[in-house]
Amino acid sequence: MSVMGWVFMLTVWSFVAILLIVCIGLILKSKRLGYEEIEEEKETHQERD
Amino acid sequence: MSKNLREHWATRAGLILAMAGNAVGLGNFLRFPVEAAKNGGGVFMIPYFVSLLLMGIPLMWLEWTIGRYAGSKGHGSPPAFFDLAWKNKIAKYLGVVGLFTPTVIAIYYIYIESWTLAYGLFAVLGKLPKVSAENIQNMNSYLEPFQQFNKEFLGDAGGTLLYPSTIAYIAFLITIMVNLYVLSKGISAGIERTARIVMPLLFVFAVVLVIRVFTLKNPIHPEVNIVNGLKFLWEPDLSRIKDPSIWLAAAGQIFFTLSLGTGAIHAYASYVKKKEDIALSSLTTAASNEFAEVVLGGSIAIPAAVIFFGAANATLIAQSGAFRLGFVTLPAVFQYFPMSNLFAGLWFFLLFFAGITSSLALCQPAMTFLEDEFKLTRKESAVVLGTFLFFASHLVIFFKGSLEEMDFWAGTFGLVLFATMESVIYMWIFGGEKVWKELHEGADIKIPQIFYYVLKYVTPCFLLIILGAWFWNYISRFKGGTDWNVFLTRGFLLYLFVFICLLVWLVWKRRRGEG
């Protein structure tokens, strides 16, 4: 395969993989994985208020 | 079901997996590599990613937004959410396209899905044909047993009628029942639970198959290996970048792969709670789908065919279509190597898992319509839809050409038509700014403002161009002679469309009566 072919393939693969990793990372950072947890959080806030 | 009792997804991970399951379908592993190979290899990825950024991802955001917005008002089916956005009598009837399209696709998709189940069982039980190593230098002779096996399975004797094998029919019955059972269990206990089991398995199976293909070598010329396979798919033919057909093929592939314009994304998103994030979740779904398609889907079927049969023969295989690649070529390749039944089984169950998560999504708009507008329970809705799908599928099972006709009207034309209408109705009539605000309600990320302008101006233009091209295709389709079974299918589709319009008319008449 030519250099151009490798560049095309690896660029596309990297782009897709990085996009997926960043998205999963952002979801983990948001700590909003389960909706039940959010409901519990909201209830806790309401009780505190 | 009243507005307050509307179901919701139990977890965000479950929602993303179900949405990814909707997007990751047979097209990721069969259609994508064939389209890429036919359309310039690596150069195909340029229009593919341009379409993804200017049309695919913006439309994903729009469809999630419409779905969650309509769900918060107690509705999730296209006639209802068009009516919510545009107070015009015609709006709900335009929405019928979004109900007609996924239901028609489900009619033939479930049947194709049942082939993967049957072939998976054949593989595991060692009932797939045996290949002769002597024929390896002649591709047609080598593939002949699989070609014959496939014809007998589908009952294709060359006429206009098909006489499927008993196994094919039993596999269809099992597949439709499994789909309806999951649907009858509901969003959280049915679809979400299935996605949480099936999607991780799908990715594991795909990775195992990629490793297998990456370690394959041509039996006669061991120097031919995965590099040749990847070269065939990725070596860019830059002279073809100006070819409009490549751009059209790439835009079409983005549509199919993200399941846009089917009403399925809206239906699923209508069960998302009002304040939950959709901006990041939808982007994650798109990224998962692209990973499954570009990295995994592009590394299995076509590279294996190139390694085994050479680039020239692989071109012929790609041109002969995705079904031949999936049901004839790849199992024949695996049959030559050790543990053939295991790898063929993994391949077909991978396709089955990809298929079932998509068919559940395709059935959901009709389920949502029956539940929201006719107040049926999930079980009642599943029985009504299941009965319809069962009888309608017989057109595809017994009449040759029926599948292709349905695929053209629903799977090609209908998707683009519906997406064009939704982008105009929501971005221009309902209001682009309201959509943008709704999209960011509870969002975990701030989407760059440029995408607002893309969604408002670029995406509709993009869609209109594709629609024009499909329309041209539609005119040329009517120039040639047509068999009676194709007319029968067209008559059925027309009847179905009118019937759904009638149902919509009845629902709104009753609503007016209730005040």
How would you describe what is shown here?
The complex is a heterodimer of chains A (49) and B (515). Chain A is mainly alpha-helical. Chain A is 86% helix and 0% strand. Chain A is rod-shaped and about 50 Å long. Chain B is 76% helix and 0% strand. In chain B, helix 1 crosses helix 17. Chains A and B meet through helix 1 and helix 2 of A and helix 1, helix 10 and helix 13 of B.
- Specify the overall morphology of chain B: globular
- How far apart lie the N and C ends of chain A? 64 Å
Q: Supply the helix-strand structural class of chain B.
A: mainly alpha
Low-pLDDT residue intervals, each spanning 5 or more residues of chain A: none
What helical percentage do the residues of chain A reach? Answer: over 70%
SS strand fraction of chain A: under 5%
Strand content of chain B: under 5%
Q: Radius of gyration of chain B over alpha carbons?
A: 22 Å
- Please report the number of helical segments of chain A: 2
Structural class of chain A: mainly alpha
The H-and-E topology of chain A, N to C, reads as: HH
Note the main sheet of chain A: none
Strand element count of chain B: 0
- What's the β-strand tally of chain A? 0
C-alpha-based Rg of chain A, rounded: 20 Å
Most extensive interface between two protein chains, with residue counts: A-B, 25 and 32 residues
Average pLDDT reading of chain B:
92
What is the average of the pLDDT values of chain A? 78
- Cα(first) to Cα(last) distance of chain B is 18 Å
How would a crystallographer describe the biggest sheet of chain B? none
Structural topology:
The complex is a heterodimer of chains A (49) and B (515).
Chain A: H1 3-30, H2 35-48
Chain B: H1 12-23, H2 26-38, H3 45-72, H4 78-85, H5 91-94, H6 96-124, H7 139-154, H8 166-185, H9 187-214, H10 226-234, H11 244-257, H12 264-269, H13 279-296, H14 301-309, H15 311-319, H16 322-336, H17 340-374, H18 378-398, H19 402-439, H20 450-477, H21 484-514
Helix pairs in contact in B: 1-9, 1-13, 1-17, 2-11, 2-13, 2-16, 3-11, 3-13, 3-19, 3-20, 6-8, 6-17, 6-18, 6-19, 6-21, 7-16, 8-9, 8-17, 8-18, 9-17, 10-14, 14-15, 14-16, 16-17, 17-18, 19-20
